[in-house]
Design a protein that fits this description.
The protein is of the alpha/beta class and 264 residues long.
């Protein structure tokens, strides 16, 4: 079942690209990132308002202080916006400002949150839990669907294995397995899946070539200064270069990118 929303048809013929900073830090950073991903041809702008972090002293996001920045970025770029939800208490506010809500890996098993998101009517991007079997991932999506929200997009973001060369082990085979056995669109997050910017374009290309429905990547104007996940973020130049190559590959594979890329 395709997810048709905000002018997009995710799971249809076109390959969808979601891009933006892991966390919204300030207005200048957000505007630089949003204009850059728009210019390169991204379909959806991402940005973290609330962040679940392993260390309690790490940057947890700006919260509601980011809302005006989101509204400005959406207005200036006309891109739909995706952000992560971390608590049931955020549902009402985020539905008001976001076009897509993402459930992160830690919350895949938060069934109360999934049930609540079943009551909203905007698309939910459900990330696979870091140690979840694909069957558990599909069952988590069913919690949302049973609430009446069938606009669900599954996102493979890498799983925790014995391997430490990459941040996680990106399970493209598992993502394709789910794609072939589920009616839901399946996208991939190679930023978290690898944790290494040099690997991200190649994994994005493999995602497209495999017949999956899109990618979500982190892009920051200055990754070395990022307050969250800077080590795995693409620079705006790296993202633009990746998009050029994906556009060529998409035409060859019959999965063209939705946007040709235009200056915002």
């Amino acid at each position: 079942m395709n997810v048709k929303f905000a002018g997009l048809d995710i799971g249809g013929k076109n390959f969808t690209v979601i891009a933006g900073p892991c966390a919204i830090e300030n207005e200048d950073q957000m505007m630089q990132a949003s204009h850059a991903v728009k210019a390169a041809g991204a379909d959806v702008l991402r940005g973290g308002i609330y962040k679940l972090r392993t260390r309690p002293d790490a940057f947890q996001g700006l919260g509601r202080d980011a809302f005006p920045m989101v509204k400005t970025a959406k207005s200036k770029t006309t891109l739909p916006f995706l952000t992560e939800i971390t608590s049931v208490s955020q549902v009402e506010a985020l539905v008001d400002i976001a076009d897509f809500i993402m459930v992160g890996t830690r919350n895949m098993y938060n069934y109360d949150l999934l049930k609540e998101l079943g009551r909203v009517r905007i698309p939910i991007v459900l990330k696979r839990g870091m140690s979840a079997k694909v069957e558990e991932w599909i069952n988590a999506a069913e919690y949302i669907a049973r609430g009446g929200n069938d606009k669900i997009i599954l996102c493979e973001r890498g799983i925790r294995t014995f391997e430490t060369a990459t941040r996680n082990t990106l399970d493209l085979a598992g993502a394709l397995w789910v794609k072939q056995r589920s009616s839901l669109p399946v996208i991939v997050d190679p930023s978290h899946g690898t944790g290494i910017p040099a690997l991200i374009p190649g994994m994005a290309a493999e995602t497209l070539a495999a017949g999956l429905d899109g990618v979500m990547v982190e892009v920051h104007p200055m990754p070395s200064a990022a307050l969250s996940d800077g080590a795995q973020a693409l620079t705006t130049e790296q993202f633009a270069d990746m998009m050029v190559k994906l556009r060529v590959l998409g035409e060859v594979c019959g999965r063209p990118l939705t946007s040709p890329g235009s200056k915002a």
